């Protein structure tokens, strides 16, 4: 059995469907005097990588009026060009190049054609689909088409040159970082790096530095770095990071994608990533992971700088997810005291090392030299740092989830010297 056949069998066994490149049915050609159309799947999210064209054609002295009762398309407020997902309306055929407007976000404009044809082109990129749009048209009788001045070909507004990010990387090793690194990254950024190897080489990726806005309760929903095995559209999410989480990842095939996105508030230093290709005997040895629709729950952790605060295991007080790994870094120019008002983690009384699920508390960064305590079961002791950093690592394995923990910390007195 050849490598390709072996890989195929493995994918079949795992029930993975690779939809990369499958054509999407969308768009249409209308000649009725009124009607409506919708983005694919509306009102559910449109698919990634959509490319749909609708043409509306009238006859005689009738122009076409087009309205958008609803529009919600991926949008960044620095992206005047609608570089990611967009709806473009053309007066005439697309090839005439008379662009009336390229839109994203929630614009609800109306348009009139100046002739017997109007074209709507909808495109989406490989990430962050939104609800899409609802469009309606009707013909309007006019005395004569010649009364309508033909609009010149319009080139869309130039995108701001400030934020350049993302890219395609094919060198066997390299590094990249968040926009403006080590200065704070911009709000509303979205950057996609695609790393591509060839032959029997997979891609290894590490993050030597990460400091993003943290959202330890809900899946890094503010600012995040997502790592995908293959293109982002395959949804084989290897990890989503925020706060000071770091991780090591490797692809199982010739492509790895990193997506950085930031929301409209709070920016920090960002991240630095390094990658290299690894020679492997055969790609088919690497099982393909299943697509993940919603990674909620397995991402967690935060950078905590307030003088006092609390944090919880993911989903608390409901059961924590399996295979979780969360890091909280508490930072202040003070000794830090940490207590656990509640703890309920998987525990065996023959396992004093907490080998299954555990909370580890480090004096400073993660390092076995700095381990102050490893906890599981219902231990509720209080722990003090000797440094101005304390790191709390929560890990769960693939069996027996419990309620988790509630932790409280406070800065107690300045560091000596
Ligand atoms: C459109 O988006 C803006 C900014 O996000 C928001 O303030 C406004 O309410 C939205 N309008 C509609 C009709 O959704
Ligand atoms: C389109 O034409 C109709 C009829 O003349 C007019 O009422 C409407 O305001 C026009 N719409 C736009 C967007 O120009
Ligand atoms: C912790 O667990 C032990 C043994 O299971 C039990 O005896 C004890 O009551 C528990 N303590 C709390 C505070 O739940």
TrEMBL record:
Domain CUB, first and last residues per copy: 26-140, 165-278, 300-412
Highest rank taxon of the organism: Eukaryota
UniProtKB keywords: Disulfide bond, Repeat, Signal
Signal sequence extent: 1-21
SUPFAM superfamilies noted in UniProt: Spermadhesin, CUB domain (SSF49854)
InterPro entries (UniProt xref): CUB_dom, Sperma_CUB_dom_sf
Keyword tRNA-binding: no
Protein name, entry field: CUB domain-containing protein
The species this protein was found in: Coilia grayii (Gray's grenadier anchovy)
């Amino acid at each position: 059995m050849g490598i390709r056949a072996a890989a195929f069998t493995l994918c079949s066994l795992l029930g993975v469907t690779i939809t990369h490149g499958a054509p999407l049915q969308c768009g249409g050609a209308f000649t009725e005097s009124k009607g409506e159309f919708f983005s694919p799947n509306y009102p559910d999210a449109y698919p990634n990588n959509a490319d749909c064209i609708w043409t509306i054609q009238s006859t005689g002295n009738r122009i076409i009026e087009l309205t958008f009762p609803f529009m919600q398309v991926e949008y960044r407020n620095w992206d005047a060009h609608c570089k990611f997902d967009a709806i473009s309306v053309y007066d005439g055929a697309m090839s005439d190049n008379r662009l009336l407007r390229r839109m994203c976000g929630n614009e609800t404009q109306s348009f009139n054609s100046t002739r017997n044809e109007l074209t709507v082109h909808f495109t989406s990129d490989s990430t962050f689909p939104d609800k899409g749009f609802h469009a309606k048209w009707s013909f309007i009788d006019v005395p004569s088409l010649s009364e309508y001045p033909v609009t010149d070909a319009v080139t869309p507004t130039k995108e701001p040159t400030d934020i350049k990010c993302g890219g395609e990387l094919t060198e066997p090793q390299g590094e990249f970082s968040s926009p403006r690194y080590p200065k704070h990254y911009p709000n509303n950024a979205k950057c996609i790096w695609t790393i591509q190897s060839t032959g029997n080489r997979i891609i290894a990726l590490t993050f030597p530095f990460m400091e993003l806005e943290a959202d330890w309760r809900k899946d890094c929903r503010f600012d995040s770095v997502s790592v995908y095995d293959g293109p982002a559209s395959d949804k084989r999410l290897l990890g989503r990071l925020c706060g000071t989480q770091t991780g090591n990842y490797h692809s199982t095939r010739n492509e790895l994608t990193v997506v950085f996105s930031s929301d409209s508030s709070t920016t920090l230093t960002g991240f630095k990533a390094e990658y290299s290709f690894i020679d492997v005997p055969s790609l088919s040895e690497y099982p393909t992971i299943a697509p993940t629709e919603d990674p909620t729950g397995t991402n967690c952790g935060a950078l905590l700088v307030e003088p006092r605060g609390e944090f919880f295991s993911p989903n608390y007080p409901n059961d924590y997810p399996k295979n979780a790994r969360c890091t909280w870094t508490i930072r202040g120019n003070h000794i830090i005291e940490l207590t656990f008002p509640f703890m309920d983690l998987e525990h065996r009384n023959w396992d004093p090392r907490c080998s299954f699920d555990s909370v580890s508390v480090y004096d400073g960064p993660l390092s076995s030299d700095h381990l102050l305590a490893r906890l599981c079961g219902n231990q509720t002791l209080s722990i003090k740092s000797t440094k101005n950093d304390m790191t709390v690592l929560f890990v769960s394995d693939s069996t027996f989830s419990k309620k988790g923990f509630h932790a409280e910390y406070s800065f107690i007195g300045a560091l000596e010297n």
